[in-house]
Amino acid sequence: MAKKRPQTKAGRPQLTDGEIPVVGAREPCPCGSGRRYKACHGRAAAHAATELVQRPFEGLPGECDWVALRELVPAATVELTLKDGLPEGVPSVTLATVLPMAWPALRRDDGSVLLGLQNDTPSGDISRDLADTLRRALETAPGTPVQARRAPADGVRLQDLLDPEGAFAPVVHSGFEFWVPDPENAAPDVTASLERANEAAIPTVKLTGVDAAYWCETPDKNHLRWVMPHPEERLLDALARLHAAGRSGLGEGTRLVGSFRAHGLTVPVWDLPSEITADDVEKPAAEFAERLAAALASDAPLTPEERRARGGLTNRQVTLS
Asked: What is the pTM of this model?
């Protein structure tokens, strides 16, 4: 049986909490207490890191598309606009769904920055983790990937770095060739990662007539997944009203089957026949948006049929994050 470690009186820290740098959990705490970081000032940092931010992209331009690119879209890029402009030597900053070898970010040889969105993050605030990665990518040497780390608990967030008036216009790609300027001459490990990623990518198209709606193709059927900004309870009521009235579909053979919950937003999902393309669903989606707006405006109590429809939608709701 392992011996219980004797309790010792640690010396009083010589630094204030605000001056304690973040180090590895098993390293000595920089405050000078003699204890490991995780047993000293790391406790507060770990607690802060595990506090879940329900809507990490709230306040950013294109919040719904941020959620879609984080959870639903295989291959896409977005040009980002920084509040203070681009630093010298950085011609552009581009958000990408994923990067080769799951790098958090990459500073290319020409100085441009690619920031990966779908990586695992060590804290409960994706915005803070991404902001920390972005700041380090802007300062790293060209031609260098940025490694993962735990962001400081009091670090800045994307909302502090990105221009709130900047456009957020995702470009959906059929594959991941955007990773490298010259795919044919890429390093072998990057080429292998590129091939694996392309094979796994589900064909996806962003609709142009409505916001944050993405058509995707799967072997058995196609789907439309639509990230919506409305409060969840009100949106579910509105969807239930339409569903009970037989007006929740997007045309013949289509069906509203449920929804995801992701990063504080609700994502209704429709099954579509395999022959229905993204172009085919553009007009029905725009018409549905009009019906939904009218249903959202209603304050009437739900009828028994609408309550049953709502229960069915709620039972088929899946939380992604």
From this structure: 0.83
